[in-house]
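This week, think about what follows.
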Amino acid sequence: MVSDEKGIVFIANQSGWRYRELLPISVEDRADLLRTRQYDKKVLSPLRSRVMDSFGENSHLSRVEGPDGTTDYLWQSLPLPDENWTLHLLRKPPTSSEDIRNAGLAAAGIWLALIFLALFLYQRWRLARLRERNRDELERLVQERTRDLQTAQDGLVQSAKLAALGQMSAALAHEINQPLTAQRMQLATVRLLLDQGRIDEACKALVPVDQQLTRMAALTSHLKTFARKSPSGLRERLDLATVVDQALLLLDPRLREEHIDCVLHLSRPAWVRGDAIRLEQVLINLLRNALDAMRERPSRRLEVRIDAIDKQWRLSVKDNGTGIAEENLASIFDPFFTTKPVGDGLGLGLAVSYAIIHELGGQLTAQNHAEGAVFWFSLPNDFLEA
């Protein structure tokens, strides 16, 4: 295209570029154009452009708001001084092969980044699914093993309980046999009194028979209850002192036979949450161990205490026996650990007792004192009113 000395394009190869102002026209020049009617009544409009880069006095890269929209052009000008015209050549800047290559590399880089991002997200999703599946499998295995261990522990508790009953059977048989013999003699006396018509004396003679039968019935009834397998996880409200009473009832034949001085300091009531049968099993095991430890002592003293300590009830069994060797204190609650002669125990009593107390939220502890050993355990105090 060609512009005159005022910067007005009057020749262009496209009509939309013709009669465009390349430079601002002063008021005097615009008045002169109207006076001379150089372009008749053509409407002149500015051609807005902004130089982006300059390559010399007459060559630059410009962004032009042309008839077809805003476009970047390589603008080259050639002055024609004889006519006071200027020749303008506008062409779009060619895209170099390096630009094409760079654009291709950039596009490829973007695609690769997207692919790697997709792979990364997919891998994270797979790992998350795998971890979730492994966690579910682990939870299932833990629950299965827990059930197996609970079943094994329940069986072990029941076996230890029956073993304790077996070891007490001789003393219990003696305890029952003696009253039966006495009752046979008393019944013979009653029969003789009845034959002689001495009714009142016969009734009085039946009183001790009734007392002995009542005691034997209570003993056998409690033996049956003790041998029963209690449900796992049972939590009932019970008086710890009553548990002591029932355990001493079962061991009463041995206590009297071995002339044990039994001293009780029991706080009543001592309310806790637990399984009465299992707690009784623990206490019987502790009492029997104490009696075994005092077997060779000429004077035997057994002390059972229930004390309130820091919102808990502590039950302790203290003896004046041989005590526990220091090297055995750390292993005394291990399964199958025993210091008794072969055939006199499997070493499961204390291990089972420890597990029962731990399951109820307590801890079984042992230590020596000046005259023997003491075992104790603590359980949370249940403060509700009876």
Notes: The longest helix spans residues 97-195. The chain has a mean pLDDT of 81.
